[in-house]
Each structure stands twice: as C-alpha cells, then as structure tokens.
Amino acid sequence: MSTVLLTALALIAYLVATGSVLLRIFHPQGPHFKTTFSAAIIGLVLHMLVLAAMLFTEQGQNFSLLNVSSLVCWLITVAITLTALRTPTILLLPVVYGFASLVQLAVLTLPHSVQLQHFEQDIILLLHIMLAFIAYAILIMAMLYSFQVSYISNRLKQKDFAAMTRHMPPLVQAEVLQFRILLAGTVLLGVALLIAAVFMDNWLAKENLHKNVFSLIGFGVFVVLCWGHARKGWRGKTANILTITGAALLTLGYFGSRFVREVLLNTL
C-alpha cells in the first residue's frame, strides 16, 4: 500500500477522532470514547507505518524537517492518547488530534526534502536525538496540560459549572499531573544536553550553535520553573507563562533553525 494512501487514511482517522470529541465535548455524558480512541489508534498505526517508510530509506535515515515534525507529532499524540486512557484529558484530545490531522495534510501536500543521516555509525548521536525528541514531546505535553489547568481554573473562578463535566479532571489532579510531566521532560532534556556536551565534538560548531543556545535557555527556564514550583509554590499564570516560554525556545532552537536552512535559504 502506498504511503500516499496510508497518509490519507491516517488523516481521515484523525479527523474522525477530532470530530467525535468536538461534537460532544461539553455533553454531560461526554464524547463517544470508543469511536474517538478507535479512530485515534487507527490513525496512530497508519501514521507509524508512513513514518517508517519515510524515515528509513535504503540510503540512510531521512530526517528532513517534515519527517521530524511528523515524528514529534506522532510521539505527542501517542503520549496524550495513552494518558487519556487513564486520566481525563478531554480538552486536549481535539487539539492533539486536530494538529495530527494538519501534519498528515502537510505530508500529503508539501514537497519532501531529503536530509540523510547514518545513525548506525554514531550511536551517541542517535541516543542524544532520541532523548531530545522524547523530552520535547513530554514538555509540549506539559504545555498543553497548562492550558487545560488554566481553562478549568478560569471556569471555577467564574462559577461556570455548566462547562465542567465528569470527563474533566479536578483542578488539583490536573496541576499535579502537569508538574510531574514537566519534571520528567526537564530531566530527560538535561540528560540529552549533557550527552551532547560531553560526547559530541561539534556541539558548539557554527551550524549547531543556534539550536544549542536556544535549547540551553529553554532548559534553564524549565529548571527555574521546577525549582519555583517546589520551593515557592509557583502555579497558575506564572507557571503557564514559563512553560510556554520554555516550549517556544525549544521549538525555535530546533525547528526554527531547520526551517531557515531547509526552506528559506533554499527558496532564496
């Protein structure tokens, strides 16, 4: 089966998952979760098959910007889906599945570039990239959870209980999960940066400097936030702003530099 057909089917599955949540997101009985998760799992499996075909080629591993974006999207979608099976995350599901739909649409419509790697020749680089991607996906999850916490908090302050359903988590539970995810992502990011600094000779090379500076600043923001929450009780608006800032810095560091090199410079 062609990757185009698989991508189209994944797009449809994600759209079904998104629609099934949005149509009944504030209904007292909640969405039809069997439909939602069935469609989401089908989308994830198809998405994984497309990724495998696009990433792993006979010439090497194609880590183009589009492929990397699709990989990170898949990691985030898997993580949110698994979390949603155990804890209420109804507000995040349409955001994540909707974004996954957009990524599939991009894969179908945008031109595919080639950026070959040979990770079998550099296991340390592979370990660094794997940890960095997983850390990034987890920290984006933390940012999404901060949006959910903010929404629930605002509804409670305005005594708008009609917008709350049994499928939304209690505020305290949502905050605890947010900071647990944040801590896990920060630790993994720190390990990924440490491996790069110690074992990679070109860590401070010109082509990597932009990415590493933004990544280190983003890591510093997350460390400060974790410290502030543990010692000073930071939460709410302060935590949300710092989480969004850290996630934005990481995004600029990697995807921003890749976008400039692969898209803007190639079109000038």
Individual helix count: 8
Mean pLDDT reading: 86
Order of helices and strands: HHEHHEHHHH
Task: State the share of residues found in helices, binned by percent.
Answer: over 70%
Spans where pLDDT lies below 50 across 5 or more residues: none
Largest sheet: 2 strands, antiparallel
Transmembrane segments: 35-56, 63-85, 91-111, 123-147, 177-200, 212-230, 236-255
Organism: Rheinheimera pacifica
Domain Cytochrome c assembly protein: 40-264
Pfam families: Cytochrom_C_asm
Describe what this molecule looks like in 3D.
The protein folds into two domains: 1-114; 119-267, no CATH class. The chain has helices spanning 3-22, 33-55, 65-84, 93-109, 123-157, 171-199, 206-232, 236-267, and strands spanning 61-62, 116-117. Helices cover 76% and strands 1% of the residues. With 268 residues, the protein is mainly alpha-helical. The protein is flat, with a radius of gyration of 19 Å. It has a two-stranded antiparallel sheet with strand order 1-2.
Which helices and strands occur, and which strands form pairs?
Layout: H1 3-22, H2 33-55, E1 61-62, H3 65-84, H4 93-109, E2 116-117, H5 123-157, H6 171-199, H7 206-232, H8 236-267
Antiparallel strand pairs: 1-2
Helix pairs in contact: 1-2, 1-4, 2-3, 3-4, 3-5, 5-6, 5-8, 6-7, 7-8
Transmembrane segments: 35-56, 63-85, 91-111, 123-147, 177-200, 212-230, 236-255
Keywords: Membrane, Transmembrane, Transmembrane helix
GO molecular function: heme binding
Summarize, please:
The protein has 268 residues and is mostly helical. Helices cover 76% and strands 1% of the residues.
